[in-house]
């Protein structure tokens, strides 16, 4: 069994989610504690709302006052608690058996990017994303909306020390590839047959030196010379697609 890298307990009050995909996914997640749902009668009539959940019927203007300005709530707002924390060791014990990839994010702090990455992780069957707690956004309505329901699907492990977490991931049998636009080798040449942990750095700064040093190899995505780099969420989607479609027979 992999040893556990200490996680940080989530603190703070409840959250507000909005938009159909985020709300429906949260309602369907048995691990999500839902407090109440507010919405227009028309919008809530289209949802499968649990009978024991508190319902507050509101007009569009009322909903707009409890969430960020001009947020696309689609007539529904859900009050929830953050998800329970997940231990890295527990996650690795399950993920390593199935060989699904893990995505490690180094100081990716924009909630829109993390939400989009979660969506790609769900689409390409990643086992989890791993972030350092103090250099990643918290759960939020903005992130949940960007994730389009994937926040409820893909486990999100928050750790204190990312380098130590990468050591644990290696102990579980994963080949750790850090994505670096200046690397000599392309991702396709380095994936091999091993279980993969793909490590993505923040836009602009890329991987920190200590994080890169805890990777087994560095790789870049092949792209046309007229484009220097990609948004981190786009790069993550391409890397996950490459892993999902790789030939494991040769």
From TrEMBL:
Domain RNA 2-O ribose methyltransferase substrate binding stretches: 16-86
Pfam families on file: SpoU_methylase
Keywords assigned: Methyltransferase, Transferase
Parts of the chain that traverse the membrane: none
InterPro entries registered for this protein in UniProt: Alpha/beta_knot_MTases, Ribosomal_eL30-like_sf, rRNA_MeTrfase_TrmH, SpoU_MeTrfase, SpoU_subst-bd, tRNA_m1G_MTases_N
Statement: the UniProt record of this protein carries the keyword Methyltransferase: yes
Record-linked PANTHER family: 23S RRNA (GUANOSINE-2'-O-)-METHYLTRANSFERASE RLMB
Protein name: 23S rRNA (Guanosine(2251)-2'-O)-methyltransferase RlmB
Source species of the chain: Parasphingorhabdus cellanae
This protein's encoding gene: rlmB
